[in-house]
Amino acid sequence: MTVVATTCPYCGVGCGVMATPDGMGGAKIEGDRHHPANRGRLCSKGAALGETLSLEDRLLYPEIDGQRVSWDAALDHVAAGLRTVIAQHGPDAVAFYVSGQLLTEDYYAANKLIKGFLGTANIDTNSRLCMASSVAGHKRAFGSDTVPGLYEDFEQADLVVLVGSNLAWCHPVLFQRLDAAKRARPRMKVVVIDPRRTETCDIADLHLALRPGSDVALFNGLLTELHQRGATAADFVAEHTAGLDAALAMASAGDAGTCGLSAADLALFFDWFAKTERTVTLYSQGVNQSTAGVDKVNAIINCHLLTGRIGRPGMGPFSITGQPNAMGGREVGALSNALAAHMDFAPADLDRVGRFWGTSRLASKPGLKAVDLFDAVGRGEIKALWIMATNPVASMPNADAVRAALAACDLSIVSEAVRASDTVDACRVRLPALAWAEKEGTVTNSERCISRQRPFLPAPGEARPDWWIIAEVARRLGYGDAFAWTGPADIFREHAALSAFENEGTRDFDIGAYATLDDAGYGCLAPFVWPAPTKAAATGGRFFGGGDFFHVDRRARFVGTPVRPPEHAPDPEHPLRLNTGRVRDQWHTMTRTGKSVRLAGHRPEPTVDLHPLDAAARNLRTGDIAELRSRWGRAVFKVHVSDAVRPGDIFAPMHWTAQLSRSSKVNAAVNPAVDRLSGQPELKHTPVQVLKLPVCWHGTILARRPIMVPEVSYGARVRVAGCHAYVMAGEQSLEQAKRLLSVAVRATNPGPWVDGAKGIGAVIADGVVDAVLALSEDHDEAARDRLSPFLSMGRLTADQRAALLEGGGADDRGGEICACFGVSRAAIEAAIGAGALSLAEIGAETHAGTNCGSCRPEIRALLRGVKSRKAA
Ligand SMILES: Nc1nc2c(c(=O)[nH]1)N[C@H]1C(S)=C(S)[C@@H](COP(=O)(O)OP(=O)(O)OC[C@H]3O[C@@H](n4cnc5c(=O)[nH]c(N)nc54)[C@H](O)[C@@H]3O)O[C@H]1N2
Ligand SMILES: Nc1nc2c(c(=O)[nH]1)N[C@H]1C(S)=C(S)[C@@H](COP(=O)(O)OP(=O)(O)OC[C@H]3O[C@@H](n4cnc5c(=O)[nH]c(N)nc54)[C@H](O)[C@@H]3O)O[C@H]1N2
Ligand code: SF4
Ligand SMILES: [Mo]
């Protein structure tokens, strides 16, 4: 079998993957030892990629209004619809909503079609929810959207400051590189700035659990302190920057005391920062997803400019990107306020791009940003919307309004790989796209490294590459000449040529050296870091070490950053702040990671973290069911009481959608406030009330055939090996629940019903269990582990049948910690109990933590827990 080198389709670390197809539709997945991002490592999600390759739930044929149609019919319908809308209502009645999970070639094609030929810039991308504040902050400071540094800077730094980043779970391989570097060089310090105590704090020397949203005050305080102490790079500031005085005046008007941190912690952080030349500040969604997002970015960059710590080994501000191709999207200019190849809507840029594309119809002004774009769809101003590779009905704030907007849209089109998503359900025209493993092109990771994705499985059904779908529509609209590509290599060459077109060093993004790459060269293209201009021999490297910023005077700007409160403050009716984000083993709306049994084990259910004080005030305990209610909507979660969140804050994951849980779609409640400059939504901060739901029962169903879940207060599907699993809770009486659920179970799993003890009921046909229902007054997370073994048995023995009807074994695994080897918390605690006192000893005993390493922070936390209990 041939081994194919490709790139992981998840996070922006951009790890290289070696895939060996097994000839049966699957593949063996390993880390690529030669890829500079990961050198062979993979995290739990990457390591489980092989479990996501099945064709279950794939969209394989084009559909219009639920009917399968031919590609010709679908493409003709889309082209005719776009033509009619433009003729009747003008180009601005059309919009695209695209994604950092498109490959660069797909992304380039989408942007070229709508901006270049349909004549509107109403194309925005889910990067608006993700990177837009960093883009705007970079442009203000540098005059370009440039990430100055490289991953190796983390390893070379003496101080790494992680702001609003849960690196351990969201960029695990980079976290492991950092962890390894810190262990090799213990004088390196790590500071985590996050209102939550996350797994990332495992390697932190200092955790600043600041008041949510107060980052600007913190970095303003730091800027003031650095200036007062004279910890400044006077020459760099004088030669390469402008605007310091105004920024300092604004910064010193504020008070870092408002961040809710102890004076000692603040002083320590300021002191470390002031004294440490090699400092990297990495930031992510705790910074970007805020109504003060752009100011947070500039407040951080200001401190790096003042100290001249930018673009040199081991130092710099570093915006880590989320999606595998967030950076590629920025390169092709698919945000509504950008043009291709890092150009803007300036007259010279418009002229240049228009000439390059040979079009007279180029959009002349920026288009709508995501939140405004969906509002315009809802108002009926946008009449045709084409969504590609993103799931906005689940991932946009105020998500039910997005669903309603799509329902009202005449021509809603989605290009998707899966058949079962909230957005696919809401769109009338469904175009089947190739998925990872089948498609080819390039992606750019957070350190500007461009890598190939290569196919290793055949195209299933009638699925097609995204670029092909776009080019076919363009051809039908009469633009065939501009879209006459025969493959992604053609598109890549065009993209590279545009990056170098009349560039002469005026734009950071230049990969002109690749504009003449032939197909064979594209086929075997090795990862490379840009810039890679035609004339320079050397490629890659850092930006701005010697100044040379991209404002016309080649100076960077200090930007004054006023302290502004979040747009919606808590009020008596909504006293708590809802923070949202990610868990370790799920990716976004779970269309892919949701297929893996081993990834489901870590956080099987949608839970909300609540501080013990807030829980007590609401009479809530772990396992209870609570409603989160905001001005925009509601969602229901299982409660997890935890002092990892601050009093007054709650945290819920973004991942669950209507496909898996009708109750727990957090974005139904999340506010749509946006940063004024970037348009990025404030996904980390929604005032909510939390109310205990008076549920009378908790239930678990395991069944051989899927069931239709009845209307209950709380419910989620859980991926379990060999059966369909559901957890539920409701406000009916236990008796009513039993009737309701047994009817639901038997509708698809007919057969004799047997009642057991302790709320157990089962369908047992010919001695084989087809389904089992466990009902109890209290929550019972272990029911799944106790009962699932019976569904993998054949005909039960009398003893087995008796054990099942007694409620199964006594096994309480306490949740999965190690996804690679399926090692539960209980097993790790048992190993510790038996004397394993280090990561290595636990690994030797249980295998936990010995493969991808994503669970090591949690194992170390269990070890620390035991040690502190012993000490106490
Ligand atoms: N496992 C997993 N990994 C992923 C993804 C995934 O879905 N699953 N998605 C990828 C994508 S697209 C992205 S964008 C990245 C996101 O990666 P991260 O940004 O690291 O992840 P989040 O969990 O969204 O949020 C980060 C942290 O911001 C904190 N925060 C909230 N409010 C504030 C604040 O006011 N100030 C500060 N300083 N911090 C705050 C939150 O408590 C949270 O811990 O992850 C990528 N990696
Ligand atoms: N509350 C809250 N909401 C958030 C966030 C948060 O922190 N909190 N984070 C935001 C952020 S940072 C992000 S990036 C977004 C992510 O949100 P989304 O982009 O909406 O989430 P995904 O599940 O990644 O959606 C990608 C879709 O593309 C499909 N797909 C995969 N490969 C292909 C392909 O090759 N072609 C096509 N056409 N389709 C494909 C997948 O099946 C999936 O349905 O969520 C945002 N929403
Ligand atoms: S860190 Fe994990 S999810 Fe991110 S690219 Fe690497 S293997 Fe994929
Ligand atoms: Mo993201």
Automatic annotation (TrEMBL):
Its cofactor is [4Fe-4S] cluster; Mo-bis(molybdopterin guanine dinucleotide). The keyword Metal-binding applies. Residues 1-57 form the 4Fe-4S Mo/W bis-MGD-type domain. Keywords: 4Fe-4S, Iron, Iron-sulfur, Metal-binding, Molybdenum, Nitrate assimilation, Oxidoreductase. It holds the Pfam family Fer2_BFD. One of its GO terms (molecular function) is 4 iron, 4 sulfur cluster binding. It comes from the Bacteria. The keyword Cell division does not apply. InterPro entries: Asp_de-COase-like_dom_sf, BFD-like_2Fe2S-bd_dom, BFD-like_2Fe2S-bd_dom_sf, CT_Nitrate-R-NapA-like, MoPterin_dinucl-bd_dom, Mopterin_OxRdtase, Mopterin_OxRdtase_4Fe-4S_dom, Prok_molybdopt-oxidoreductase. One of its GO terms (cellular component) is oxidoreductase complex. One of its GO terms (biological process) is nitrate assimilation. PROSITE patterns: 4FE4S_MOW_BIS_MGD (PS51669). PANTHER family: NADPH-FE(3+) OXIDOREDUCTASE SUBUNIT ALPHA, RESPIRATORY NITRATE REDUCTASE. Belongs to the prokaryotic molybdopterin-containing oxidoreductase family. NasA/NapA/NarB subfamily. This is Assimilatory nitrate reductase (NADH) alpha subunit apoprotein.
